[in-house]
Amino acid sequence: MAFFARPASASAAVRIVNPNTQNEPVQPPRKDSSQRRCRNVMIYGYCKFEDKGCVYYHPPAEEVIPTPARSASPAAVTTATSPISAHAVNAPVFVPKASPLSLTSSSPPSAPVTRQALASSSPSSPAPPDYRETYAYSDSEQVAELDTQFYDDSQAHFDVYSAGYAQNMEVPFYTGPSQGYMSEPLDHHLYTPAIPSAFVTSPTDSHFVHTSSELRQVLVERSHTSRSAPILGSNLPEELQGYHTFVPIDTVSSSERKKFFNLDSVVYRAINSTDGIPYVLRRIENFRLMQQAAFNAIEAWSQIRHPNIVTVHEAFTTRTFNDSSLVVVYSYYPNAQTLFEAHMKSTPSALPQHILNGGGRVLLGQSHSLPQLSQYGPMLPSHFASSISLHQLQASGIPERVLWSYIVQIASAIKRVHEAGLAVRTIDATKILLTGKNRVRIGSCAVWDVLTYDQHLDMVALQHDDLQQFGRLIFALCCNNLQATTNGNFQKSLEIISKTYSHDVKNIALFLISKNHPHKNISTVFEMISGRLLTEFDDAFEGMDRLENEMLSELENARLVRLLCKFGFINERPEFARDSRWSETGDRYIIKLFRDYVFHQIDERGNPVTNMSHVLTCLNKLDAGTEEKIMLVARDEQSCLVVSYKDIKACVEAAFRFNFIFMNH
Ligand SMILES: Nc1ncnc2c1ncn2[C@@H]1O[C@H](COP(=O)(O)OP(=O)(O)OP(=O)(O)O)[C@@H](O)[C@H]1O
């Protein structure tokens, strides 16, 4: 009989051998099934399928060492040939291959074993061991739950496969019924559970981070956007200053030229050849650089790293576009929208008429209104849906909580810039980007500094102007109108703010747009909004907790992919075909059997079992190298190995190292 025996020192694997063939040096021809001793008898001393069509040999009762009495305590069930406990190795009941008739006519799975039934079962009345009992021994608390699960699953399996059974009689490999895997209890230490509701203020929503499923959708959409292909025949340069694959971000017809305030401007996404990362290139058309020193501002801006500022990377001039253009390069945020696009640009066609007529008006600042708006979600980009729905309804502004979040973030960005001795100069709804849920970043920085270099403007005045722009922005957002403070709209806008928002909002907005205020600077602004900062901190930290939790579950993927790669490297190497024993010996043999155990399970009708949770459970346990033991059965069913995940992990590591060394020499 051929089997693999690891040196005792190298592995804790326990071999379960067939006693009839123990001394045979080579693999014998396969016996007729009727002569082969039933594995259930070998393991459990008993086969519950003996009278139900099991074709294997069942020795008379006196030949079999009796199975120990059942007990609710973790009793060991020993076998005639193995000193180990079948329960201890989680050995599933061996269901014999039998004629289709005998199995299809077998009775449906037995009724579930309840905790009461287990407790009342007499120790002196031997019964076929049942792997439900394994759970009872290991954790009695789980029995009731597992019983139900087991029974339902097995019933379902019975029905699902019964039709196709007769066609699948050539069973190449078998390790036990699939029900065992379906009811396998997960070791929750190996999995990342959803964040417990006690850890967050709201189990479903958080201010800065989407729910898990939304987050995934948003990230996938961003990934798609940043990989979108360039438009063919767009006449864009193939390469410019180390950037390639140009894609215009905001495609507009030539009749409606985009403006950077009053200058013609185009925004592209392009990939940097050095780091392979996409960037945004803002091109200002027809700009002639008179002095190289104008780029000093770019140098200063590129030093600024702030979570609410779109980082400036570099700038250059070019004639590639058949004019003289200034190009400033920024970090790229896929699917970013300007505050104007997100909150002010009307999309009337996307809204039902009764809403447009005012019937759907909702009170601002009351977050409980938001869920009702989800019905319009599909028309809106999902990543902004929860924060912009109110605005898409053309109500007069945005919720107060969101507004304060913007105010705090923009104030923080301004403070950083002013402290660096610069002025922002682009605090405008068309230049501030919404890059995530309630996350804003001031974009297009530095362009004005280059454009107006020769005007030698006073920095203090420019910083003062920043605060006024900030005030105008708050008015615009509250009133949903870019012209809220001009064209005679001021009084009306003030009324809207007074009616809709808190006194604090009105105060800060008025303070910011005021002229000649003696103590007007960004530090005073922070004194005024200090009461709102803690809410931002709290929400930001909660967002971090959520993201960390999401990250944890993704880490599992990386671990599992690495493991799968190792399997791929080790198993069935065609270049070793000359050595037919390549995967039949040593560590590789255990790995091969384990691979079968994980991926090539078949059910009692010979159908492949594609149970992902079984695969994930096994791989996670393998990665963790647990002490839990499993029984691996050779393809010829002549030998079994009882090994722990820890042993298998050691085998994988050793074989992988061997492969690696071998391939590198
Ligand atoms: N750094 C960036 N990352 C991702 N997208 C950006 C970035 N900067 C700008 N965009 C996007 O490019 C598009 C055009 O930007 P632009 O500043 O021209 O906005 P706009 O609304 O067209 O303003 P204007 O009315 O002044 O032309 C906007 O949709 C904006 O979201």
TrEMBL record:
C3H1-type zinc finger segments: 32-61
Record-annotated C3H1-type domain positions: 32-61
Entry keyword set: ATP-binding, Coiled coil, Cytoplasm, Metal-binding, mRNA processing, Nucleotide-binding, Zinc, Zinc-finger
Region (Knob domain), start-end ranges: 570-665
Coiled-coil boundaries: 531-569
Pfam families linked to this entry: Pan3_CK, zf-CCCH_PAN3
Domain of life: Eukaryota
Residues annotated to bind ATP: 282, 430-431
Region described as Disordered: spans on this chain: 100-132
InterPro entries the record matches: Kinase-like_dom_sf, PAN3, Pan3_CK, Prot_kinase_dom, Znf_CCCH
Subunit structure: Homodimer. Forms a heterotrimer with a catalytic subunit PAN2 to form the poly(A)-nuclease (PAN) deadenylation complex. Interacts (via PAM-2 motif) with poly(A)-binding protein PAB1 (via PABC domain), conferring substrate specificity of the enzyme complex.
Family according to the record: Belongs to the protein kinase superfamily. PAN3 family.
Reported function: Regulatory subunit of the poly(A)-nuclease (PAN) deadenylation complex, one of two cytoplasmic mRNA deadenylases involved in mRNA turnover. PAN specifically shortens poly(A) tails of RNA and the activity is stimulated by poly(A)-binding protein PAB1. PAN deadenylation is followed by rapid degradation of the shortened mRNA tails by the CCR4-NOT complex. Deadenylated mRNAs are then degraded by two alternative mechanisms, namely exosome-mediated 3'-5' exonucleolytic degradation, or deadenlyation-dependent mRNA decaping and subsequent 5'-3' exonucleolytic degradation by XRN1.
Domain text: The pseudokinase domain, the coiled-coil (CC), and C-terminal knob domain (CK) form a structural unit (PKC) that forms an extensive high-affinity interaction surface for PAN2. The N-terminal zinc finger binds to poly(A) RNA.
Protein name: PAN2-PAN3 deadenylation complex subunit PAN3
Organism from which the protein derives: Lentinula lateritia
Gene for this chain: PAN3
